[in-house]
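Marked as duplicate of an earlier ticket. Keeping the data here for the record.
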Amino acid sequence: MLRPEYPIRTERLDLRPFVPEDHADVLAFRSRADVARYLLTGRLGPDEVRELLRKAAGRTALRREGDELALAVVERATGRVIGDVVLVWRSADHMTGEIGYVFHPEVQGRGYATEAAQAVLALGFDQLGLHRIIGRCDARNTASARVLERLGMRQEAHFVENERIKGEWTDELVYALLAREWRKMNQPPA
């Protein structure tokens, strides 16, 4: 089981459970066509964001396989929610998880997605004791693929036209990282 202490602080970010007051910030990026382009869901309106926040507010611990942490990513300097990250506990037997993230395009290119995802990987490997964590993305989403690569994940699969998203067949990339690889990357220099 994993019940983190919040907020989870990185150099520039706070990761914490969603609250209803996050509505305007989340709507600002989840309602955009360029954000929804590579997601399974479409653009979200005000009511859909309210429902997303309601559901996400209860996803603050991993108690059993299938549970999901859904966290707001807050830029500490501004106090604004600039994205969200998730950690899903995929299998207890195989000790596997999955990460995901969505960020406001206005903050892309600043390393925020990598910084937040590293914190989530640390939760999965260091606190939950997972053996393997994957990340998946639409193959056209090169920015997301670069984040997974910066995290030290290796591309293990390129599925061709395996999903139909918004009426279009799309390719999917799957990246993965093992706990031993995580520990090696994050050991202090000798």
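See parent ticket for discussion. The chain has a mean pLDDT of 95.
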